[in-house]
Amino acid sequence: MGDSPDRHLTVTEFAEREGVPVRTVYWWNQTGAGPRRMKMGRNVRYRLADVEQWEKTRIVEAGLAR
């Protein structure tokens, strides 16, 4: 499938990428803490480009975290 920015991740694929349980992803969805997502009927998908952008916002510079 490749890692094209147009690629879409399932909830499970996104959870595996982030190293978190699927329930954490659903919590992020509920609280608005996660990346943008698309609803396709009952299914949720994440554009890889949106996930990568969201990941960039999670970076904490050394010395700034407490």
Characterization of the model:
The protein is of the alpha+beta class. It has three helices and three strands. It has helices spanning 11-18, 22-31, 48-57; strands spanning 8-9, 38-40, 43-47. It has a three-stranded antiparallel sheet with strand order 1-3-2. A hairpin with a 2-residue loop joins strand 2 and strand 3. Helix 1 (11-18) packs across helix 2. It is globular.
Reconstruct the topology from this structure:
Blueprint: E1 8-9, H1 11-18, H2 22-31, E2 38-40, E3 43-47, H3 48-57
Q: Over all CA atoms, what is the radius of gyration?
A: 13 Å
Helix content: 40-55%
Q: How far from one another are the termini?
A: 39 Å
What is the beta-strand fraction? 15-25%
Structural class: alpha+beta
The whole-number mean of residue pLDDT values reads: 91
Write a brief structural summary:
The chain has 66 residues and is an alpha+beta fold.
Name its key features.
66 residues, alpha+beta, three-stranded antiparallel sheet, 3 helices
